[in-house]
Amino acid sequence: MKVGYLGPRGTFTEMAARGLFAKEELIAYRTIPACMDAVATEEVELAIVPIENAIEGTVNLTLDYLIHKQRLPIVGGVTLPIVQHCLTHPQNKEKHVDKIVSHPHAIAQCHDFLQQTYPNAEWEYMNSTAAAAEYVANHPELPVAAIANDLAAEEYELTVAYANVHDYQQNRTSFVVLRKTAKAISNDGAERSEDKTTLMVTLPSDFSGALHQVLSAFAWRKLNLTKIESRPMKTGLGNYFFIIDVEEKQDNVLIPGVISELEALGCGVEILGSYPCYDLAMAKTEA
To answer: Which residues are tagged with the site Essential for prephenate dehydratase activity (predicted)?
Structure first.
């Protein structure tokens, strides 16, 4: 089975893909939209892309492309601990750095370290942490450093100038697995943490207190919500949809009851996926 992931080689997404699909053929794509497009055109059967970081929040590109461009079912989820390092080229033995390159989220996650260690360095954003590591590897003549992980350091033969430079120790990123059909993934190698159902809800424009009514539909059924987030519909100011994660697998009673109640209120409801979630930190701890 072919599995696409946000590349190049050495990204956190590759680490997540290895944790779930160690025996499958992994194919790197340069951007998140390219991963999704590969599933839609059947170049790969599955794609794994980042959806949320504990420090920086939702990866908006993933969510917006999923909603507005490639409506693919979510068939799995995985959470990965994030450990960032400052990587330099082996030829840069003095650790002199004029520029820091990395993904915007990674730079934001290491803000304190960068302000203390490289206060005058320029920041340049890239598509991924591994792309930044690759850039440093390909430009040994430049005084540049990348914020990336252990896998990238190994893949591109870079020096860990400073280890564990992230500001928060509980930093984690969640990824979703996408497929053209809604068949959920199964995995025996990773620790299953929970089941989740993700819904997209749009509110009626002429219904005061509609969001309160939406939340009540879940509350009285004792369905636990792990996330509720609004995003613009891109149809005009003030038009939003809501992404709601329910800590429950889709059943024949409770979630269908919620959907029927919301539709009776005039809301639009779509299930984006009902799927198992895995935690690679749990698996690593138990190992």
So the answer is: 173
